[in-house]
C-alpha cells in the first residue's frame, strides 16, 4: 500500500495527450500509477466507487483505485487476469484469471477460485439473473457463473472468438465474435445462442461493443475497416457506419449524453453522437495515449476512463512470429479520465 501511494502522481494533460481536436471532451485528469505487468480491460464499479485494473503476466494482480480521485486503494495479489467485473446484487467481484478469482467487493478479501475451460479474456456482469459471463477465443467461448456463490451455471459455444459483450438487462446478451465479423445473441434465461447478426461488410474484426438499451441499438467498434457500425438489436439491420481510430478494443454508450465511445491503441478516443435512432455523427476524436485501447464508463460523473503505459524499443522479430513490443517502461503506466 505504501509503495502504491508513493507512486501516485497526478500529471498534466500535455504529458499524455496530443493537441485536442475541437470538441467538448478532453483528458482532464491523469494519474501516473506505475507498476509492471501487462494490461487489457479496465472496469468501473459505479456503485462501489472503485476502479479495477487487472495486470497480467508474472506481475499478475488486480489493482484497485478510488473511482473518483484515482488514488490507490489496494491490490489483489496473485491474479493474472485480463478483465474484472462486480455484481452489484451479490457484492462479489470476479477476474478473468484461470482459475477465475472471486472476492468480496466490499472488503476486497478473496472468497475462492473457480476452475474454467478455455482462456478467459473478456467479462460481463448481467443483472438480469445475477450472473457473470467469462468470454474467450477458444471453446467454450463463454462460461456462465452464478455471482452469488460462484457456481458454474453452464458453458456456451458462440461459434468464434468472443470479445466485448453487452446486456439489455431484460434477458438478452450480445457478444462480438471478432473472427467471424458478427454478433452472437444469447437468451440469458434459457442460456442458449439464438442467432448471429452479420455486419454486411461494414466492419470486421470487431472488438468493442456498446448498446443504447432504450432504443435497442448496438454499436460495434471494428478494426477492418476502422468503423463504428450501428445496428438494430431487434433484427440486426445495419443502420449506419462511421469512421473511428485504429486498433479499437472497447466501446461504451452513455445514455445520459446519448454518445457512444470507442478507444483505440493509436491513442484516440472516438465519440459518436446519437442524434436520433437513425441519425449518427462523429462528434469528436480525443487524443489520449498510445496503447489506450480499452475503456470504462462512470455514468455517475459521465467520465470515460482509459489506461496505457509507455514501452521501450521492440526486440527483433523472430521468423514466422508476430512482432513483439518492447518492455513496459517502469512507472509509466497511467490512468486517464476523459470528460467535458
**CATH homologous superfamily designation:** YVTN repeat-like/Quinoprotein amine dehydrogenase
Mean model confidence by pLDDT? 93
Largest beta sheet: what is the strand line-up?
1-2-30-29-28
**What class do helices, strands and sheet pairing give?**
mainly beta
Total domain modules:
1
Main sheet, how many strands, which sense, barrel? Answer: 5 strands, antiparallel
CATH topology: Methylamine Dehydrogenase, Chain H
Spatial extent as radius of gyration = 19 Å
What is the tally of beta strands? Answer: 30
Structural summary, described in words:
With 340 residues, this protein is mainly beta. It has one domain (2-311, 329-339): 7 Propeller (Methylamine Dehydrogenase, Chain H), CATH 2.130.10.10. It is built from one helix and 30 strands. The protein has a five-stranded antiparallel sheet, with no helix packed on it. Strand 12 and strand 13 form a beta hairpin. The protein is globular and about 45 Å long.
Would you kindly provide a brief summary of this structure?
The chain has 340 residues and is mainly beta. Helices cover 1% and strands 50% of the residues. It has one domain (2-311, 329-339): YVTN repeat-like/Quinoprotein amine dehydrogenase (Methylamine Dehydrogenase, Chain H), CATH 2.130.10.
Amino acid at each position: 500500500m505504501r509503495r502504491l501511494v508513493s507512486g501516485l502522481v497526478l500529471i498534466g494533460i500535455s504529458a499524455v495527450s496530443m493537441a485536442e481536436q475541437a470538441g467538448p471532451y478532453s483528458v482532464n485528469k491523469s494519474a501516473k500509477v506505475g507498476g509492471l505487468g501487462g494490461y487489457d480491460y479496465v472496469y468501473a464499479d459505479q456503485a462501489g466507487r472503485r476502479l479495477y485494473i487487472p495486470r497480467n503476466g508474472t506481475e499478475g494482480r488486480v489493482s484497485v483505485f478510488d473511482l473518483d480521485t484515482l488514488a490507490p486503494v489496494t491490490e489483489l495479489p496473485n491474479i493474472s487476469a485480463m478483465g474484472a467485473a462486480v455484481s452489484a446484487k451479490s457484492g462479489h467481484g470476479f477476474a478473468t484469471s484461470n482459475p477465475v478469482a472471486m472476492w468480496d467487493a466490499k472488503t476486497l478479501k478473496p472468497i475462492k477460485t473457480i476452475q474454467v475451460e478455455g482462456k478467459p479474456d473478456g467479462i460481463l456482469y448481467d443483472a438480469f439473473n445475477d450472473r457473470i459471463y467469462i468470454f474467450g477465443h477458444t471453446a467454450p467461448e463463454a462460461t456462465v457463473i452464478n455471482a452469488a456463490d460462484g457456481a458454474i451455471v453452464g458453458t456456451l459455444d458462440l461459434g468464434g472468438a468472443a470479445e466485448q459483450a453487452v446486456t439489455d438487462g431484460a434477458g438478452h446478451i450480445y457478444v462480438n465474435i471478432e473472427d467471424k465479423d458478427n454478433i452472437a445473441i444469447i437468451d440469458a434465461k434459457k442460456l442458449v445462442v439464438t442467432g448471429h447478426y452479420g455486419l454486411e461488410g461494414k466492419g470486421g474484426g470487431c472488438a468493442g461493443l456498446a448498446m443504447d438499451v432504450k432504443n435497442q441499438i448496438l454499436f460495434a467498434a471494428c478494426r477492418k475497416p476502422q468503423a463504428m457500425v450501428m445496428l438494430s438489436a431487434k433484427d440486426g439491420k445495419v443502420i449506419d457506419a462511421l469512421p473511428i481510430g485504429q486498433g479499437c478494443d472497447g466501446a461504451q454508450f452513455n445514455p445520459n449524453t446519448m454518445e457512444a465511445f470507442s478507444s483505440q491503441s493509436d491513442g484516440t478516443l472516438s465519440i459518436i453522437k446519437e442524434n436520433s435512432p437513425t441519425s449518427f455523427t462523429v462528434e469528436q476524436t480525443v487524443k489520449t495515449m498510445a496503447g489506450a485501447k480499452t475503456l470504462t464508463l462512470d455514468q455517475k460523473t459521465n467520465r470515460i476512463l482509459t489506461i496505457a503505459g509507455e514501452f521501450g524499443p521492440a526486440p527483433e522479430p523472430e521468423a514466422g512470429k508476430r512482432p513483439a513490443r518492447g518492455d513496459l517502461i517502469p512507472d509509466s503506466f497511467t490512468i486517464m479520465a476523459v470528460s467535458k
